[in-house]
């Protein structure tokens, strides 16, 4: 009896480089942010997204203005 092995196994294909249109440039810029005044809290946010009350969204303490080098959005 003759067996026909015409079914092929799936072979994964890997590509080593992204397409150029998918590459993301990480441009860092000096950005004004507000960070929590509590040293035990890591809460901070960009000035563009801060609430009017300037309270930390994580712990509720006040926040102070500072400059950080962050990726451009």
Shape: elongated
Major sheet summary line: 3 strands, antiparallel
Computed structural class: mainly beta
Radius of gyration: 25 Å
Q: What's the β-strand tally?
A: 3
Q: Mean pLDDT, rounded to whole units?
A: 83
Series of H and E elements: EEE
The proportion of strand residues reads 25-35%
* Number of H/I helices: 0
- The low-confidence runs, each spanning 5 or more residues with pLDDT under 50, are none
Query: What is the helix content?
Result: under 10%
**Strand order within the widest beta sheet:** 2-1-3
Distance between the termini: 67 Å
Protein name: Cold-inducible protein YdjO-related protein
Provide tags for this entry.
elongated; 0% helix; 29% strand; mainly beta; YdjO; 3-stranded antiparallel sheet
Overview of the molecule:
With 73 residues, the chain is mainly beta. The protein has a domain at 25-71. It contains no helices and three strands. A three-stranded antiparallel sheet has the order 2-1-3, with no helix packed on it. A hairpin with a 7-residue loop joins strand 1 and strand 2. It is elongated, with a radius of gyration of 25 Å. The mean pLDDT is 83.
